[in-house]
Amino acid sequence: MGKSIGFFLVLIFISVFSFSFIGFSNELSQIQTVESLLEEKVTTNDFSLHDNSYIYDSNGNIISEIYKEENRIYISYDEIPTYFIEAIIATEDRHFFSHKGFDITGIARAFLVNAENQSIEQGGSTLTQQLVKNIYLTNDRTYNRKLTELLYAFQIEKMFSKEKILELYLNAIFFQNGVYGIEAASQFYLSRSVSELSLAEVAYLLAIPNNPTHYNPFINPGNTTERKNWILAKMLELQFITKEQHNAARDRKITLNPSKKIDLYPDYVTYIHYEFEQLVGEKEGYNQKIERASTNEHKNQYISRRKKRVEELLSSGIHIHSSLQPKKQENIYQVIAQRIPNQSIQGAAVIIDHRSNNIVAISGGKQYKKFDLHRGFQAFRQPGSSIKSLLVFAPYLSERNSSINNFINASAFCKNGYCPRNYGGATYGNVRLETAFKHSYNTAAVRMLDQIGIETAFSYFFKLGFTKIVEEDFNLPSALGGLTYGVSPLEMTTAYTTFANEGMFQKARGIEKVLDANGKVLLEWDKNPQQVWNKETNSKMRSLLNKVITEGTARKAYYNSGNNFIGGKTGTTNTFHDLWFIGLNEEYTTGVWVGYDQPKSLAHINSRAPHLLIWRDLMGD
């Protein structure tokens, strides 16, 4: 008799709510049916759960897990062990595979209990209703919310198979400590995948979502164990497990083995985040809109949209494959720390595999912390004489078709009040180009720039990817690195890869490809190499670069490379604020910068040549 009354009351309740729901959702002049309204409001797009993203090194190993508030590792129904499904059915929704989204018997029982207690104590929710609550609704215990939940659950049952609903549910539930879904929970609490868990461990994990605070195993392990045993009893009751399995799992003590978020190599990972934003902007048109923006307001709007799009992708479970070579990255840390023991002096290095134009290692500075100012690509400094290769000698050889044995006047030079001096105030006469380069004579370089013309020289330089060159840099002091804003170590190192690639420039990248959650290529950089100078000029430059190490200003960078090529160019700014060396061998181009964050003299360490020793240690390893 009681069940009949309860059933009757529930039917009346649902009917009344259906009318109120229609009235709530539509104006009287535009009344829709409940079915069409639900089809409009409940779509498959609403069920895209946040998923962790990952950055991988060149060996395919994870170096960074990316998530903010929700640590979730989405798995498909086929990957969910049977014990998880049986446990959740036994404890949460025994009629799941037979109902249409709501269980009339459960609702009636809950309604009668609530009526007796004159409050909303029980919900009678099915798994589908709980999924609705997780995706759409709040935890408010009101009849209005409850009946909205019923209608939404009914619609979801029409949209998805039972297996898909279970998949969504087990990936959506909250396990405390920022963890969502069974796979993330398994790895977070036990450091193993769900496929490796025992029956006891499955029941232990599924104890948590019922009341994540009360059953938090870090704080209330006794509560968690008690509910674990209750879950096992329910599984036995429905004959999902045998008495022997039940007893063994009940008596097994669970030992937590919590895992930490993977986040290695902060220098490299920080750069990859920056490059990923640039990749998204390039492929989806944001960068072009930013460049063409007529006002700062419009520019900032496009930057904001690009950032939002990046966040959307990072929450969708993407896989960013990078070119990082961990051993080279670790070597940078060790070498810079060893060669620059002074805590206040900073250093950065970039290593590029110029055969593929991949950035295999990059440092942001000593003791770098993730997302701080990155000295490898965000610090712009005066390049000193290291610019001579790119702005003076290569353009000069190309324009004049000169031999490196031709002579250039290295005597005193003055023009329009600009009178550069050589190191130590030395004066020279006519010298071979090779001599002027390997000993880095300033007067010769400025005279060469003046002879070929500043605009002509910069027509080569602009092809090399420098981002902060302005009109004010079109002057003779630029021959010695006197730029308005300067260059970054990454820019300089990338520019020098032309000497390894027969005069061809290709912007170096750290990202090889980006895959979506299904393993399909989502984004990758286009290859667009550009010829900067011809092969003959490039061959001459390689000879000059080699002489710098074997006979010139960079002899401390020399190492025995056998018959393989090594070469590079030093750079020291006025008053020794910056020390540079950019060089290459047959495989890698490496750039090194040493200096203070707030520029001041490095004269006291210049004789030790830490920039040359760092380069030698990195390349000769």
From TrEMBL:
It catalyses: [GlcNAc-(1->4)-Mur2Ac(oyl-L-Ala-gamma-D-Glu-L-Lys-D-Ala-D-Ala)](n)-di-trans,octa-cis-undecaprenyl diphosphate + beta-D-GlcNAc-(1->4)-Mur2Ac(oyl-L-Ala-gamma-D-Glu-L-Lys-D-Ala-D-Ala)-di-trans,octa-cis-undecaprenyl diphosphate = [GlcNAc-(1->4)-Mur2Ac(oyl-L-Ala-gamma-D-Glu-L-Lys-D-Ala-D-Ala)](n+1)-di-trans,octa-cis-undecaprenyl diphosphate + di-trans,octa-cis-undecaprenyl diphosphate + H(+); Preferential cleavage: (Ac)2-L-Lys-D-Ala-|-D-Ala. Also transpeptidation of peptidyl-alanyl moieties that are N-acyl substituents of D-alanine. GO terms for cellular component: outer membrane-bounded periplasmic space; plasma membrane. InterPro entries: Beta-lactam/transpept-like, Glyco_trans_51, Glycosyltr_51/Transpeptidase, Lysozyme-like_dom_sf, PBP_transglycosylase, PCN-bd_Tpept. Gene3D superfamilies: Biosynthetic peptidoglycan transglycosylase-like (1.10.3810.10), DD-peptidase/beta-lactamase superfamily (3.40.710.10). Its main location: membrane. It comes from the Bacteria. The keyword Transcription does not apply. In the N-terminal section; belongs to the glycosyltransferase 51 family. In the C-terminal section; belongs to the transpeptidase family. This is Penicillin-binding protein. It comes from Anaerobacillus alkalilacustris.
